[in-house]
TrEMBL record:
Keywords: Bacterial flagellum, Cell membrane, Cell projection, Chemotaxis, Cilium, Flagellar rotation, Flagellum, Membrane. Residues 253-323 form the Flagellar motor switch protein FliN-like C-terminal domain. It comes from Paenibacillus barcinonensis. Belongs to the FliM family. GO terms for cellular component: bacterial-type flagellum basal body; plasma membrane. It comes from the Bacteria. GO terms for biological process: bacterial-type flagellum-dependent swarming motility; positive chemotaxis. It is found in: Bacterial flagellum basal body; Cell membrane. This is Flagellar motor switch protein FliM. It holds the Pfam family FliM.
Length: 332
């Protein structure tokens, strides 16, 4: 963005030039000099702004799905929002989280590598308290979890990954699977310390308890699908082709569908008084001669012309002709 000077700043600049406090030649030299920007190789930029925007969109959907899931599970007010999406070295992420926290280490095939969903202890213990019948308050002192508490947390977060799968469907069909649950960041080394990661920070509020949920995705995991994270992929819709097995499954389901078939002898219009006066032996004249075929409809569409008859003392209809009414052409 180009900086625009206000009128007061312009007046002050002109006054400084007039009084000799600033030299116009020095200003020109500064403009011609090359601007040097420092680059930290430990904080390598692997994700472009376009990638960051795409990750933000994906995980905004993830936050909405997660809000719905936790609200249903905990039966209390839950609010989850994306605070920021940034890239930083993995070592910096490890140093920024508490020494005692909840680390859900998971994989998401077909992506190769491990990722981490870090849950602040305040949020994790508020969920645990709520699931065990409490009000959803976090303890003042965080202690190590028991085996029962660990099992409960594994169950609730294993199902939470379904929300991540749903949010990523627009980019890639992934199958997240919880691999392990840790509480000490020092025992978790999923990539090298200098590896760049995408860190998605979600602010979380459960009742009166607030905290953060951080999703750590290493660059090496997303590298094979980086092209799909461009804005172009979000706006260009590709024509999808059905796999043969999908087509056969759809065909099988359609073949099992039930539709009503009606053979019409004909139609007639009578008044309500005539209808109420009908008795056994009365004859109703139809609008079709006897020699004309019957209209056989499938659903509400005319599909066949047939002839009435009997088979083994039962009323039957023989199909004599197939008509094209009701046939619709669909593009493949």
């Amino acid at each position: 963005m180009v900086d625009v000077l206000s009128q007061n700043e312009i007046d002050a600049l002109l006054a400084a030039l007039s009084s000799g406090e600033m030299d116009a030649e020095e200003l020109k030299k500064e403009e011609t000099q090359k601007k040097i920007r420092s680059y930290d190789f430990k904080r390598a930029v692997r994700f472009s702004k376009d990638h960051i925007r795409s990750l933000t969109r994906i995980h905004e959907n993830f936050a909405r799905f997660l809000t719905t899931y936790f609200s249903a599970q905990l039966r209390t007010f839950v609010q989850i929002n994306v605070v920021q999406v940034e890239q930083l070295p993995y070592d910096e992420f490890i140093r920024s989280i508490p020494k005692m926290t909840i680390l859900n280490i998971f994989e998401a095939e077909p992506l190769q590598g491990r990722m981490v969903l870090e849950v602040h202890p305040n949020v994790g213990y508020a969920m645990l308290d709520r699931l065990l019948g409490g009000t959803g308050s976090a303890p003042t002192k965080i202690a190590s979890m028991t085996e029962i508490e660990t099992t409960i947390m594994e169950r609730i977060f294993s199902r939470a990954f379904e929300s991540l799968q749903e949010a990523w469907k627009t980019v890639l069909d992934i199958s997240p699977r919880l691999e392990a649950l840790e509480t000490n960041p020092q025992f978790m080394q999923i990539v090298s310390p200098n590896e760049t990661i995408a860190l998605i920070s979600l602010s979380t509020k459960i009742g009166d308890t607030t905290g953060m949920i951080n999703l750590c995705i290493p660059h090496v995991v997303l590298e094979p699908i980086m092209s799909r994270l461009s804005t172009h992929q979000w706006f260009v819709s590709e024509k999808k082709t059905r796999a043969p097995e999908e087509y056969e499954a759809l065909k099988s389901r359609v073949n099992k569908a039930k539709l009503p078939i009606v053979a019409e002898l004909g139609e007639s219009r009578i008044s309500i008084a005539e209808f109420l006066g009908l008795s056994v032996g009365d004859v109703i004249t139809l609008n079709k001669p006897v020699e004309e075929g019957l209209s056989i409809k499938v659903g509400d569409r005319l599909k066949y012309i047939g002839s009435p008859g009997t088979i083994k003392d039962r009323v039957a209809v023989q199909i004599d002709q197939i008509v094209t009414e009701g046939v619709e052409e669909f593009d493949e």
